[in-house]
Amino acid sequence: MSFSQKCKNELARKMPDNQCCQLAELSALIRLDGTILLGFHQSLGLRIDTENAAVARKVIKLTKTLFNLNSEAIVQRRRRLRKNNVYGIEIRNKIGVQKMLQKTGVGMFLTAEEENWQKESLKKACCQKAYLRGVFLGGGSISNPQSGSYHLEMVMHDPGIVPHLCGLMTKFGLDARQTTRKKAEVIYLKEADQIVQFLNITGAHTALLNFESVRIYKDIRNNVNRLVNFETANLTKSVEASMRQIEAIQLIAGRIGLERLSFALKELAQARLEHPDVSLKELGELLDPPVSKSAVNHRMRRLEQFAERLRKP
């Protein structure tokens, strides 16, 4: 099961206590996944399609709780792409469907009074959160935080919902971005902090903790990798410098002998030959009396310059 599915399963199990929030969530689900069914003799029905079984159960429960409507669940299997199941929830009750569409603010059946009620219904923060939860359940997905990037998106085939949804997300401090993909409008979040905030707003607290756990682990791993790379680079640099210094000292010893060097340079040269792996700071501490790293570095440059002059014909 993908991280996105786990997140939806958690949100689908979350049933709002207030009827206004239940209406707001059902309204979003109908707007994103609903299809009005028109037939002969002015029959009217509604079908809501989803690929998530938990979301399908929630739709059935919401329609039953709010409007006492019986529904029929139809399971079909896609023949292309992932070949996963699609759950179709069909309601064949003209009066009940019409009432539900009016109460949820969907369709062409709204009176002026009901339109005003619908606008007022999403002014409460709890209803706005429920509406965002419904939108994510209806058309949302979230990438696995263990993947290379963070991404949460909601796909809508009804462009009329986009400005309203962007406005809601802005109220909660979410920087929603918008794009068009295959004739569908996509609202998405890319920053990890924004995704965490969205999960918190919609009530996906278990998914939020899992998301944060993975993110913290990735941050620690990245920091460790940076430190290891830094230490490795420093170690490589130190080894190369030590080999270059030993080569210069051996050249001097072979050409003229270390005895012809000054006492300070001779002492340093012998210490380096005896301790090829230590750093310049440690090398300075081995001398008698001990000298600083900068002093060792200065003397070592003199040895390398002297060896360079010996190399010239």
Brief write-up:
The chain is of the alpha+beta class and 313 residues long. It contains 12 helices and 8 strands.
Written overview of the protein:
By secondary structure, this protein is of the alpha+beta class. It folds into two domains: 3-203, Homing endonucleases (Endonuclease I-creI); 223-311, no CATH class. Helix content is 60%, strand content 14%. It has a four-stranded antiparallel sheet. The chain has a four-stranded antiparallel sheet with strand order 5-6-8-7. It is rod-shaped and about 115 Å long.
Task: Work out the helicity level.
Answer: 55-70%
**How would you write the strand order of the largest sheet?**
1-2-4-3
Put simply, the count of helices is 12
One letter per element, helices H and strands E, the order comes to: HHEEHEEHHHEEHEEHHHHH
Largest sheet: 4 strands, antiparallel
Structural category is: alpha+beta
What is the CATH fold-level name of the largest domain? Endonuclease I-creI
Number of strands: 8
Count structural domains.
2
Shape: rod-shaped
- CATH superfamily of the largest domain, by name, is Homing endonucleases
Give average pLDDT, whole number.
Answer: 88
Q: For the CA atoms, what is the radius of gyration?
A: 35 Å
Strand content: 5-15%
End-to-end distance, in Å?
Answer: 74 Å
Low-confidence stretches: none
CATH level 1 name of the largest domain:
Alpha Beta
- The oligomeric state of the chains shown is single chain
CATH architecture of the largest domain: Roll
